[in-house]
Amino acid sequence: MMHGMMISAATQIVVWVASATRHHFEAARLRRKERRMASALSALDDSTLKDLGLYRSEIPSIAQARAASLCEA
């Protein structure tokens, strides 16, 4: 019975490590999307941002929210 418990514990550790690794890569992918979006919005001139109803100071929070919503979809 002890052997079966060790396999179960090892399986749980593998599952935990796989889950943590997946979470790490998903978080990195989200940060890349945020940076690309913030960069694209930052490249726009103030007039274009105004036409879109945005202020330059809002770019980081807009990029973060939009990237998160894209990852959920």
Question: Could you explain how this protein is built, in words?
Answer:
The protein is mainly alpha-helical and about 70 residues long. The chain has one domain (about 1-70). The protein is built from 3 helices and no strands. Helix 1 (about 1-40) packs across helix 3. The longest helix is centred in the first third of the chain and has 41 residues, at about 1-40. It is rod-shaped and about 65 Å long. The termini are far apart. The relative contact order is 0.11.
Describe this structure in a few short sentences:
84% of the residues lie in helices and 0% in strands.
Helix content: over 70%
The number of domains is 1
Radius of gyration: 21 Å
Q: Could you give a short account of the major beta sheet?
A: none
Q: Structural class of the secondary elements? A: mainly alpha
The unreliable regions are: none
Pfam family, one: YjiS-like
Domain YjiS-like: 26-59
Protein name: DUF1127 domain-containing protein
Organism: Belnapia arida
Layout of helices and strands, plus pairs?
Elements: H1 2-42, H2 46-51, H3 59-72
List its salient traits.
73 residues, mainly alpha, 3 helices, rod-shaped
